[in-house]
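Hi Y.,

Following your request, here is the sequence exactly as I used it, all 350 residues.
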Amino acid sequence: QTLFGVRVRMPLLRDRAFRTLTLSRSLAAMEYNIAASRLLRSTQNLRREIELAYISAYESLAAYQVSRQATARFQNLYEEAQELSRLKVVPQYQTYQPQLELQISREDEEKARNRHELSLITLAGAVGSKTAVTLKGEPEAIFERASAQQDLPQLDEALILQHRGDYLELRNSVEYAKIQHASAKEESRDDLSLNMGVNWQGENENWPYGNDDLISDRRLGGEVTLVWKRSLDYRGPKARMARHRARIEELKAEMSNIEVDISTELQHAILNYNSARQRLELVNHGIAAARETVAAEQERFRLGENTSSNVTDAQKNLTAILQRQNVAAADLLRAKTNFYHAIGYCLGNE
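Below is the corresponding structure, written out as tokens. Let me know if you'd prefer a different format.
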């Protein structure tokens, strides 16, 4: 006897309109979005790390140059004091202070050189290189870059959040948990389905497959059934739904914390940027006066009107204000880097 049938099942409660398949596809799509957001977060953090490493490298390079220039000034002063002492213009003890400051400056120069080498190693690690990298720009590049900065743009908070990888990751995680909750709710529903079938029957005395009507001449038949199923496990689905609800609330709380952190990071960056910009302007005005003071004290020392200590003090003040210019310029660029990280680099690669 041969029996062939076709049956169609139509869900009426659980998995109605193929909801289970739709939820599965939504889960897969949300997993992709979470992974993409995680990649964006890592990329943004890596970009800030590399930019800060570059700024530190140029800052240390500029500091090293300032130390070398200071050593050269003390060296010239020491040699000039020795010559003036030989000519009996100044007493011998006037050479002691320049000699002391020269040795101190050489020690400062060595420390600056070591800090610069360390910053290059740190930069190499940030870009994924095992060997130290070299900088193509000049030490003055950090001042030129800082002096060309303009006011920071004003952006809407909603736009910023749309470009932050960490916030997008949490938001997609919330949607993923909501889909999981919907899946658990769908599984907890009763299974009611309408089943319809069409059968065909045939016989044959010698073969397993046949088309004869030996027993009955009724070849076609049909059926319509209504099937209802319900699981005896009531606690399991409810526990899973409660777990997903708790996860949703947890992620929403983390999103609120991220919003606060982003706002704090943004405000810090803006305040630091404005402060560093003002400091840089003040220092730039003082550098010219410091250079003129050094020149005036050197001239008075040649004429025997003051001591070498006055010249060394003027030179140390010049070195200090040049280092302050270096720090202010680096702080300005660091603040801008932190600002663009805070806004999720939504303005492109500026």
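The first strand starts at residue 2 and ends at 11.

Thanks again,
Q.
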